[in-house]
Amino acid sequence: LPWTIPPEEFSKRRDLRKDCIFTIDPSTARDLDDALSCKPLADGNFEVGVHIADVSYFVPEGSPLDKVAAERATSVYLVQKVIPMLPRLLCEELCSLHPMTDKLTFSVIWTLTPEGKILGEWFGRTIIRSCTKLSYEHAQSMIESPNEKIPEKELPPISPEHTSEEVHRAVLNLHGIAKELRKQRFVDGALRLDQLKLAFTLDHETGLPQGCHIYEYRDSNKLVEEFMLLANMAVAHKTHRTFPERALLRRHPPPQTKMLNDLVEFCEQLGLPMDFSSAGALNKSLTTTFGDDKYSLARKEVLTNMCSRPMQMALYFCSGMLRDQTQFRHYALNVPLYTHFTSPIRRFADVLVHRLLAAALGCGELPDLEPEALQKQADHCNDRRMASKRVQELSTGLFFAVLVKESGPLESEAMVLGVLNQAFDVLVLRYGVQKRIYCNALPLRSYHFQKVGKKPELKLVWEPEDTDLEPVQQVVTIFSLVEVVLQAETTALKYSAVLKRPGTEGLLG
Question: What InterPro entries does UniProt report for this protein, alphabetically (predicted)?
Fold first, then answer.
């Protein structure tokens, strides 16, 4: 295998191998698409680089490899494994930006002020040599210890040309700029709907889930996200400026009107001061309406869940096939032009965007695709992306059902997000799953549905546990906090949620 970069590539590319460049990824990642660099300049500004694996170099247009990648269109991430878009030799070896190895990349390099204002921008093919592979945890500990040296044993190996202090300083500088970029994005009207996401720990031998936790989205994740967004927007503008008829862009239509109107009415009935007039207004409502106590945070989770329902999928499209440029907009990011450039190992759309960018810079052929053909490929990428998202959700659901079966019953607090006349829906807060609880499955003496004003509620009367005791009454309405038990059913890998009788103490742990 030992493939080496052909000598002629060095004359065609900017050589960045001496720069302090590193990757930040999940600790288990093997397909490393992106690397970052941050050099302080004498005037107090920074030279910041986003360096992306140059997949299009290895996947020539029209080759058998290209056809398979175009058909697959995306890697699929299941709980226990990845089904890659490209052969493993490419996605885990040749393209992946492993440390201390010369790699072919496509870079966007900016001159940025400490506040994230762009003073200069450069695009081009490059060669890098990443000096270390940081996990999000490594980067997070650097962010949280700005003035302390991190012990070498707690860090991955760093190439001898660079020091851990140099990497630490670069991470802190990137974090400082990312915070400013993020703050400005939300001031400019962006929206983020963070839904609870489950992560599993698997048994090394059986591969079965041993436990799970809600994935924590931290400053190190935000750091990477900000620079990926910046690169994607920069490439969208560059390719669209050069090829107004055949740029591959990504648009996000506004929410579905009817569903949004229903949600507006629902929030008004509950007396919630939510503003749905724009993405930014909605984001502001979600971030300012709620306090930091447990109940407020749970209400925010439930409302975030409700707000995500009217949202539409973001879509790839060819700029020449959509006459109305206002439809190019990305609703959630609240920007006029956006694309995907930063993950070509796992998304075919990014490979097409790389080819367009290379053509725009005069260092590659313009893809042999008319707008109609590019749109057809965009549609296929959209279909595959939706299918892969669904499969990932099903994979998570399957593993969680196995966990309930093997380790259950599991207890958790839950918050009610919908009330029907014989059942109600809850968001199980410890696990981020939604379940319906049926009244006829509970040991109730009676239950009664009514609307108080426009607010639906169920009045439950529990059978007393002892004949000497009075029946226990419980009112279930939207935003009620309740205790639930998740237990396996006899049917294969199904589980149900059962409401705990009020007043029964103690959680299973």
Answer: Dis3l2-like_C (IPR041093), NA-bd_OB-fold (IPR012340), RNase_II/R (IPR001900), RNase_II/R_CS (IPR022966), RNR_Ribonuclease (IPR050180)
* Residue closest to 263 by CA, chosen among 311, 301, 296, 193: 311
Give tens-digit pLDDT for 425-465.
999 999 999 999 999 999 999 999 999 888 899 999 998 88
SS3 category, 324: coil
Would the CA dihedral through 85, 90, 92, 98 be positive or negative? negative
Q: Could you list the beta-strand ranges (E) of 294-393.
A: 315-318
- For 238-251, the pLDDT digits (tens) are 999 999 999 999 99
**What residue has token string 């029946």?**
471
Eight-state DSSP code of residue 335:
B
Strand order in the sheet with 34-40: 14-15, 118-129, 102-112, 46-53, 34-40, 21-25, 132-135
Residue 128 three-state SS: strand
Is pTM, for the whole model, over 0.85? yes
- Beta strand pairing call for 14-15 and 118-129: parallel
Long-range contacts of 370-377 (CB under 8 A, 24+ apart): 370/246, 371/245, 371/246, 371/318, 371/319, 371/320, 371/321, 372/318, 372/321, 374/246, 374/248, 374/318, 374/320, 374/321, 375/317, 375/318, 375/321, 377/70, 377/348, 377/352
Q: What is 408-499's CATH number, 3.40.50.1820, 3.30.420.10, 2.40.50.140, 3.20.20.10?
A: 2.40.50.140
User: Angle at which helices 219-242 and 164-187 pack, to 10 degrees?
Assistant: 70
The count of residues in the chain is 509
- Provide the pairing of β-strand 433-438 with 444-452: unpaired
Q: Report residue 69's pLDDT band, with 50, 70 and 90 as the boundaries.
A: very high
Break the chain into its structural domains and give their ranges.
7-252+314-401, 257-308, 408-499
